[in-house]
Amino acid sequence: MRIRIDAGDLPGRSCAPGDRGPVPPYDNVHVAVQRRDRPAELLDPQPGDGAFATWTLDCTAVPTPAGIEVKGPYVQHRLGHRFIYLSWGTVDESGVFSMFRRAKLMLDAVPDAVLVEAARVGLLVGRLGLTDAHGNPRCARVVPPDIEWTAEATA
User: What DSSP string describes 9-51?
Assistant: First the structure.
């Protein structure tokens, strides 16, 4: 199975989240999918001012007595919850990404019927906007209705 994240409404290349206080804004903001247990290993960083960003992740869908369990190199597993991290960071002149916040796309919030169908047809798609209510990069737990999960047949 694969998971595709389709993201729109990116917040821009510069932001000043309210929790930073009176310091300069973050510049050259990018977003990427973080590899499990390797925060510095990022999949396809995208500029924060893009019209759209998409990532496709290889994973496995394993039937268990509790339902479908999703595993893969970009699927985090903490405290009994599975999720995908979208990491926000700045990229300096030498190309170094410095994370300043993350969003957790909660896989345990995918409706059971959608997850079962995605395992059958091969693709789980999550669609979301990446700008929060304050115009900053979306962070924290992301669950429906802030993300829409669907099952789609692979090509």
Answer: ----SEE--GGG-SSPPEESEEEEEEETTEEEEEEEEEETT-S
